[in-house]
Design goal:
Strand content: 35-45%
Order of helices and strands: HEEHHHEEHHEEHHEHEEEEEEEEEEEEEE
Structural class: alpha+beta
Largest sheet: 14 strands, antiparallel
Radius of gyration: 30 Å
Number of helices: 9
Helix content: 10-25%
Low-confidence stretches: 1-22, 237-252
């Protein structure tokens, strides 16, 4: 029987679409088998040879996938997009390191720009109402259901969905303590509780449907914290080959954590940075001065807290504790001890000298390496800049410190740059305002997974306004200085590191010339 031309036309179109879809599934299956082992992904290998990934992404642009094949197709598409997004930003320590990871509509699927959130919530969950999807869609983190080393296919999808759900709900994804009669659940059940019945009783009933050993309903249920560390096989391999490496399950890479890095929601950072600056020379209005010793000790206490789901806004508070001292006519190094008199006098000062409120933001979702920090700081002691009875303690002005950060990591190296606009506004008529523009460059080398060496250079010009030589109470004049130094950081654990830094102020105009000795300690919550 002769087929009509119209029938042949639609048959060819359908066949081509099916071939494209099957080509994507086959490519995904080969790709996952090559790069996924026990749920961990070899992102470095994909980054080195991305052609197979690019080929899959191109196939995903095919339109009009046959309806009966859509569910399997979209599951694979979601997982491949997650891998591709991580590879693009790699090396990173967590998908949350990429601003807008789930919300940016930057992925092409069926000739449409789409975000991971829309793909997950609209095209999959709204369309299919299947809670099992939670156990096959991956997010690139350790506590996500593991990425399989095979693709999902229409003809075996039901079996694969059931298999992955059973594997998840009979694993450490559900943590049962029969002694305490408690069960700790993944926060997935908290975030998507309505998909599992909406309350703890219904959630346990759903879980028990797939458990080989049921959880008694009387057990008290809670949620363990979600581990957003990257499901990177490289971290796992390094933890086996290096005695000083950090297990992947607890990994937080503080090596690449810079002043510009942001925290995810509810994560916090405690930092104490201790600085001893001592000078025995200065340049002042054309004269080189010496035969004195000025020493300034500062303890900067910082608390930072993540407040946004997309890891783009942090809030913080800064506390400055200072004790300073000066000795004239003697530049002996032992006179550093004058700063440790802990007295308020004409030659020494001590106290909580200023408090600052801080906002840090990542303004451009497409430029995750760039961030801005703005701090408004006020003095907390009287006569902060000193008088006849009191030595200098801090700036007796309102300080508005704006910092612009950019960093780039290249395997074992990192370049970090910072440019600041540091305004100090007068609080008395007899004062003048000033603007400092610190420019900083840091270059880091990571010889191991815990150790960092770095060098730095800083140049700071100061500009002032309304200089009035008749006013004797304000001594601020234009100046500039340059300092360079080197430091080392050591990661004590997945959440804490210690930093040592030495700098030398080797040139300056209308400024002191001295040295700093710095010790910093940082703790970041999981």
């Amino acid at each position: 029987m002769m087929k009509s031309p119209l029938f042949i036309f639609f048959f060819v179109i359908y066949t081509n679409l099916a071939v494209c879809q099957n080509s994507f599934i086959d490519l995904a299956d080969q790709f996952l088998k090559q790069y996924v082992t026990n749920g961990l992904v070899n992102y470095q290998a994909i980054k080195n040879e991305p052609l197979k990934l690019y080929e899959m992404l191109n196939k995903m642009a095919v339109e009009d996938i046959p309806e009966q094949d859509k569910k399997a197709y979209l599951i694979n598409a979601y997982n491949i997009i997650v891998v591709a997004s991580i590879v693009e930003a790699y090396p990173i320590q967590s998908p949350t390191d990429v601003p807008g990871f789930f919300t940016n509509e930057s992925h092409v699927l069926a000739n449409e720009m789409i975000s991971l959130n829309k793909l997950e919530k609209t095209l999959l969950f709204d369309a299919y109402k299947d809670p099992r999807l939670h156990f096959v869609l991956v997010c690139g983190a350790i506590d996500c259901p593991p990425l399989t080393n095979f693709a999902y296919r229409t003809e075996t999808l039901e079996e694969q969905l059931n298999q992955q759900t059973k594997l998840a709900l009979n694993s450490n994804f559900i943590r049962v303590n029969n002694t305490k009669k408690t069960v700790e659940l993944s926060e997935i059940f908290k975030w998507y509780s309505n998909d599992f019945g909406g309350n703890s009783k219904a959630i346990l009933a759903y879980i028990n449907t797939y458990r080989s050993i049921s959880i008694p309903q009387k057990y008290r249920a809670s949620y363990y914290p979600y581990n957003w560390s990257l499901n990177d096989i490289k971290i796992k391999l390094e933890s086996k080959s290096e005695s000083d490496s950090i297990p992947a399950s607890n990994s937080t890479n503080l090596q690449t954590f810079t002043a510009g890095s942001l925290l995810r929601k509810k994560q916090y950072d405690l930092t104490v940075f201790n600085t001893l600056y001592t000078e025995a020379k200065s340049n002042w209005q054309g004269q080189n001065l010496s035969n004195f010793r000025n020493t300034f000790v500062t303890h900067l206490f910082q608390f930072t807290y993540g407040v946004s789901n997309n890891k783009r806004i942090n809030l913080g508070i800064d506390l400055n504790v200072r004790y300073n001292g000066t000795v004239g006519n003697d530049d002996a190094f032992v006179n550093i001890s004058e700063a440790f008199r802990f007295q308020n006098s004409p030659t020494s000062r001590v106290g909580l000298t200023s408090i600052g409120l801080r906002l840090k933001a990542q303004p451009f979702a497409t430029v995750p390496d760039f961030s801005i920090q703005s701090t408004l700081q006020a003095p907390t002691i009287r006569n902060a800049e000193g008088n006849a009875q009191l030595y200098w303690g801090d700036w007796e002005r309102i300080t508005w410190w704006n910092q612009f950060f950019y960093s780039k990591t290249f395997h074992k190296f990192q370049l970090f740059t910072e440019v600041d606009l540091l305004f100090r506004f007068k609080v008395y008529e007899t004062q003048i305002g000033m603007l400092d523009i610190p420019i900083n460059v840091f270059f880091s080398y990571f010889p191991t997974t815990r150790l960092t060496f770095y060098g730095m250079t800083q140049h700071v010009p100061r500009f002032t306004n309304n200089i009035n030589p008749q006013v004797q109470s304000d001594w601020v004049i234009p100046m500039n200085y340059t300092a360079s130094g080197g430091g080392v950081k050591y990661q004590l654990s997945s959440q804490m590191n210690i930093e040592l830094l030495y700098t030398n102020f080797w040139r300056g105009k209308n400024s002191g010339l001295g040295n700093t000795f710095n010790i910093g300690i940082k703790y970041i919550s999981k």
